[in-house]
Amino acid sequence: MACGEEHDHCCGNHDHQKDGGCCGGHDHEHDGGCCGGHDDGCCCGGGCCGADDRDQIAMFVVGPIETNCYAYVSQGECLVVDPGNSGQAIAEHLPPDVTVRYIVATHGHGDHVGGVKALREATGAKYAISALDAELAKHAGEKSELGRSYDDNAPDPDLTLAEGDVLKVGTAEFRVLEAPGHTPGGIVLLGSGSAEHVCFVGDTLFKGSCGRTDLAGGSQETMQKTLARLKRDIPAHTNVFCGHGDPTTMEDELAQNPYLR
After folding, report:
1. CB 204 within 8 A of CB 222
2. Of 68, 151, 159, 216, which sits with the fewest C-beta atoms within 10 Å of its C-beta?
3. pLDDT (tens digit, 9 = 90+) per residue, 4-27?
């Protein structure tokens, strides 16, 4: 069954070669061992960024349906992906010497953008989302069609993202791939530079599954085209960081995910 706003969850810890245990972060060389669970709805990420000069990733599990929020840190600069809840708490658990440059939403569902307002206020970072999902994100604090609401409505974006745009933090670069299907404005962030082998896919792709298409704005036909495109454009040796559940690798998904066959 395709995943989306309803899912089973166990957060994962892995490096660029293999999966590890549950609940943790990693750097580009080895497992991070940072797993510091904490209050305010966040998990997996307390104090694991900024320990040395290597790029690092922290994962925070936030909100009532356990959305994965990621912080990618390179050379003291940070990109936060999908703060769906607990924006202030996320800011408090980032290292004090890190400058958050961008807050990026992979799509506009409330469970991915409800924490944007508080996080932007706390950090002064620029908020970016596809123009096609910007309006949807402005209703995160209101009840969705599934009856859920999140911290706050997202503000107007500082940047709107489209195919081929590149966001830079430190020595890492992330190229925007348009990935509609779950929502009209879904995007994927494919890393290069020091972020090579990293990809943030939101709710487009999951371990063994893909995003649901039965919510407003979803399209199964469009999702199939997006997944076919990701098969071509994401290298096999890429760590895939999903919007819910375990991270995975593109190699494993190409071998095992029925939606990529």
Report:
1. no
2. 216
3. 433 323 233 333 322 222 233 333
Residue 195's pLDDT is 98
Numbers of helices and strands, H then E, in the chain:
6, 17
pLDDT computed for residue 53 by the predictor: 80
Round to whole Å and give the CA distance between 49 and 172: 15
Task: List C-alpha distances in Å: 76 to 7, 73, 171.
Answer: 34, 6, 10
Which pLDDT value is given to residue 174? Answer: 98
Three-state SS for 125-180 is CEEEEECCCHHHHCCCCCCCCCCCCCCCCCCCCCEEECCCCEEEECCEEEEEEECC
At the top level of CATH, which class does the domain 23-260 belong to? alpha beta
pLDDT of residue 213: 98
Using CA atoms, how far residue 88 sits from 85, 91, 115, 209, in Å, is: 9, 5, 8, 31
Residues of the chain scoring pLDDT < 70:
1-52
- How much of the chain is in helix, strand and coil states, percent to nearest 5? 20, 30, 50
Per-residue pLDDT, 144:
87
Taking the CA of residue 41 as centre, how many other CA atoms within 13 Å lie in the half-sphere pointing to its CB?
Answer: 22
Length of the chain: 261
